[in-house]
Amino acid sequence: MRIKVSSLAALAGLAMAGLLSHAHAQTYPTRAITIITTGAAGSVSDIMPRQVADDLSKRLGKPVVVDNRPGGTGLVAANMVLAAPADGYTIWFGPMGTLAVNPHILKSMPFDPDTAFIPVALVGSTPLVMVVNPKQVAAKTLEQFIAEAKSQPDKFAYGSVGPGSTPAIAAAILARRAGITMTHVPYRGFGPALDAVIKGEVAMMMSDTGPVLQRLADGSLRALAVTTPKRTTFAPDVPTFKEQNVDLDISLWYGLFLRAGTPAAVSDRLAAEMGEVLKDPAFAKSWSSMGIEAGNLAGPDFAQYFKREQAKWAAIVPPLGIPRE
């Protein structure tokens, strides 16, 4: 039986690539690893990667540091990762909005979300909660709110950090599916938007759960619904949108990603280590007070979830008619 020399060379090349990849995984890491996050200092997307960095450092035996690169709806951080070598030493702490929502609200993307990154692990997620100013809004249930909004169109305004942000999109979905109209008022940052609701400048907003828990406890805000399929452990008395006949199921998730082209053995090693981190009850407990649910997916499982999320948002966003930025 004859085998072409070119075929032998190709097989040898594949074998060598496999050996190099295996060797890389055996020695990786040999130096510090950097996690680049979109979050500003003190934000949820700053606190989360720092916890991840501490736990990964213990498991990998090398320093893992966090580099904050906010801006550009997450694109500043993403582009930094894509500009770094594909060797596993630069990890992106990526939010759902940048990869799944941005393609449908921006005029152009600097990369293809389907192929630019390797999904490593779903680190955590947080539901959105619809909060209202109790002095402006008499409604104590979502049904009452919708009824009041229908009887007085445009009576209510809602705040957000911008029309392309996930909370603003969630409010737009509510308006569309409930058949109501509301005025959108964007603010420069989450804090100013939340303050606007508390002061009564706007009637409501969709918010991360953690930052409003104290405000719900002291009566500054009232919660009408959460966006998860089931009630959350953080606010168990707040019903879901689905319980109140509005089909709204959204969670803000955060994941670890590597640049495409990173050796499979390296991405597999990171996924395996993160899988162990996510199983640790202490990991989940450390975030529960902030309204964050620990992730439970790594490697191929997270990659499948990521694909489902992309398809989900591709179906949700375009019909809303949000002008592309």
- The number of domains: 2
Number of strands: 10
Termini distance?
A: 62 Å
| CATH structural architecture of the largest domain | 3-Layer(aba) Sandwich
Percent helix range? 40-55%
The mean pLDDT is 90
Gross geometry? globular
Total helices: the number is: 11
* CATH homologous superfamily heading of the largest domain: Bordetella uptake gene, domain 1
Helix and strand content put the structural class at alpha/beta
Alpha-carbon Rg, integer: 22 Å
Strand portion: 15-25%
CATH class of the largest domain: Alpha Beta
Q: What pattern of helices and strands is seen along the backbone?
A: HEHEHEHEHEHEHEHEEHHEH
Query: Runs with pLDDT <50, length 5+?
Result: none
Short description:
This protein has helices at residues 5-27, 44-60, 75-83, 96-101, 142-151, 166-178, 190-199, 213-217, 264-279, 281-288, 300-316, and strands spanning 33-37, 64-68, 90-95, 117-132, 157-160, 183-186, 204-208, 222-226, 251-259, 293-298. It is of the alpha/beta class. Strands 1, 2, 3, 4, 5, 6, 7, 8, 9 and 10 form a 10-stranded mixed β-sheet that branches.
